Amino acid sequence: MTTFPDAPAAAGIVETAIRTRRSTIRLAEPAPGPDELLDLLAAAATAPDHGQLRPWRLIAISGDARVRLGEAAAEAAPTTDLAERIAVKHLRAPLMLAIVFQPRDHPTIPRWEQLAATSAMTTTLLLLLDARGWGGVWFGGPHPDAPQVRKHLGIGDGEQLLGYLYVGTPVPGDGPRPRPAADVRAKLTWLGDTDR
Ligand SMILES: Cc1cc2nc3c(=O)[nH]c(=O)nc-3n(C[C@H](O)[C@H](O)[C@H](O)COP(=O)(O)O)c2cc1C
User: I want to staple 36 with a disulfide (CB 3.0 to 4.6 A). Which of 32, 52, 94, 129 is the partner?
Assistant: First the structure.
């Protein structure tokens, strides 16, 4: 049997948080408010980020603002039926966080590294929300590139909407879902000595 050195206690807590996190789709009120969100964002902003460029910003959308965003997204739908369904999707959680990628021109830090840093921050935020008992899920969102949505949210030239974190309180009774174990053996190539 494979053994590993004893890990510090904190490592166990972190590992449990990572292994038990699940995306939550059924979300009810309440959701975190501005102070808690800023606190969590400060923690999420510690994710790996070459040059600490923080090439991202978030837009929090709650209450009636979700209705107005839903209307903007619905305008981009090709049919009335789809438009109605798209508008309703914006009400699936009490809080939506639009993840806006803001790449900068940089002499040594390419765009792909900045996108990776934004993804790392977002994943860390999702994990932190889950660890605090909030539910959340990252969805691309209906028509994130539609001009109506970009205009409504004030997405600037050169910025990209990377979808939304839908955030709220997990609906009672929707207990934790077991996660099938991933077989990652084929995902690792090891070059060099494995005697360790
Ligand atoms: C950038 C991004 C966009 C996603 N968009 C969608 C989506 O539009 N629809 C969807 O069903 N899942 C989407 N997912 C996957 C879910 O967020 C989630 O990871 C998946 O349902 C697995 O659940 P889990 O996180 O509990 O493993 C997206 C994931 C990422 C990283």
Answer: 32
Q: Which protein residues touch ligand 1 with a CB less than 6 Å away?
A: 22-23, 137-140, 163
> Per DSSP, what are the bridge partners of residue 193?
none
Instruction: Look at residue 1 in the predicted model and tell me its pLDDT.
Output: 46
Tokens of 175: 């207990």
* In the chain, where the domains are located: 23-60+93-170
Q: Kindly provide the ipTM of the predicted complex, given to two decimals.
A: 0.97
Prediction pTM value: 0.94
Residue bearing tokens 């009672």: 172
Cα 100 from Cα 122, distance rounded (Å):
10
Separation of CA 23 and ligand 1 centre (Å): 8
Say which CATH architecture domain 23-60+93-170 belongs to.
3-Layer(aba) Sandwich (3.40)
